[in-house]
Amino acid sequence: MTPAPMSDAHRHFLQALLALGVVEGSAAGALQRQCCELHRVYYAHDKLDDFINVANAQLQPLLMEVRKGLSEENGGTYYALVNLAETEFTKMASDYSESELELFKKTMDLIVSSGSGFASSTDILNLADQLKPKKMKKKEAEQVLRSLVQNKWLCEQEGEYTLHIRCILELEQYILCHYQGSVHKCHVCHCLCIQSQVCKDCGIAMHLPCLAKYFGAQAEPRCPHCKQLWPRWMLDTSTAGLRLPSHTPKESRRTPTSTRQR
Ligand SMILES: [Zn+2]
Ligand SMILES: [Zn+2]
Fold first, then answer.
1. Which Enzyme Commission number(s) are on file for it (predicted)?
2. Residue 75 CA: which ligand is closest?
3. Shortest-distance ligand to the CA of residue 189
4. How many CA atoms lie within 13 A of 257 on its CB side?
């Protein structure tokens, strides 16, 4: 079957997505509506994924794709236009110098190896004078971090950094290859997991929002793979009063038994 042709509404939608980098689910729906109304194209409010599939069929030969992902913090849906032809960090090279990219890569190393998905600004800024080809002053490194947050590569909360969903969507392949063995895919949604809890018995990982959704429907929190009890989850919910199924990023991060090893 030949794919349905793209309309001007699709083109407009893709241009906006390209400019924005990443768009939250309801904003993507609003954008679809605007584009359809502007170009007088039939609009169905609950058919965003179908609308995107039409675009994706046309984008495939160009090695591009609109990808949908869930925020690791709150489980919200996000969309990003991903270039599958560009490898690793080529897509960032126009915005950042070699040393700045080096800082970003080292920050990713810290985040991925933390076991919790977070790196502190102190730890990141301590890397500034080891960067190649050019060292950075802490002030400069702070500015680079600010720009990485602004461009939605990193998220920051109270001095702790993690990967933005945009970064995960765009660099998923790189992260999976480069950190083979130390990163997991979520057992529930099958997407790459940076902030996760891991089963101590069988080693499967789940995102915090996926875990909340999964265990919210169970009488007893048991691992979906090995069926052993998931004690950390019980502790988290009983001590922190975590609300199911959704909780704010702060709650999920500040639980006393969180996976962060400090
Ligand atoms: Zn998940
Ligand atoms: Zn297990």
1. 2.3.2.27
2. 1
3. 1
4. 15
